[in-house]
Amino acid sequence: FELPSDSFKYLGWCDIKEHGVRGNQLHCPRVREGPSEEELFFRKEEHTLKKRKQVTDTEKWEKRLQENWENCAELNLSFQDLGDLYQVENFKRILRRLIRVEKLWLVDNSLTDISAIRLPRCRELNVNKNHFTSFKQLPKIPQIQHLSLAENNIATLSGISDFRHTPLESLILKRNPCEFQERYRQLVFSNLPNLKILDGIPKLPEDCSPPDVRVFYRMCTIL
């Protein structure tokens, strides 16, 4: 049986009429667009189409003003279920507008590459549980202080030195293949001398091995 609310379940808050809520007033908005018309027919949910109509240029501009992403300072866009290419493109459109965001969560969105995105004021970024394989696939974040990349697929530390000139203090790489690299912590701290915390553990004396100790790791002793 259909519920009265069924015809609204694929609508974003911007598509609901007669309210003045703006994007910067929401911390966890749903930004994923609904399924295509073909998919709705396949699901036998074509009744939801009655809420859709041709959008005019004026309505597009009004929606842009209502979204107001440019003034968001703290935003959680996690678990958006971006299974289709058009969903990812719409998601990136929103990310490009986050010019003032300082804290951003993008957890579990199946993201693979957002290197074309620039987040000039972002100080805290959480992209746990995505599909990143390299630091080069991350957005430009020149003011980053806290970066969480747990449960991705980053195999090497190549590209990590790009964060050397940022104010990065805390980095989480738990459950990435690079965590099993020999002398993992020493390598991270040698590339990021200003880093204070790695994987929740503060910088330890043994994380700053002197040069002669580092040579020892590359030697083979036969007894």
TrEMBL record:
Record key words, sorted: Leucine-rich repeat, Repeat
InterPro entries the record matches: LRR_dom_sf
Alphabetized SUPFAM superfamilies for the sequence: L domain-like (SSF52058)
Highest taxon above the source species: Eukaryota
PANTHER family noted in UniProt: GENE 29133-RELATED, LEUCINE RICH REPEAT PROTEIN
Protein name: TILB protein
Organism: Struthidea cinerea
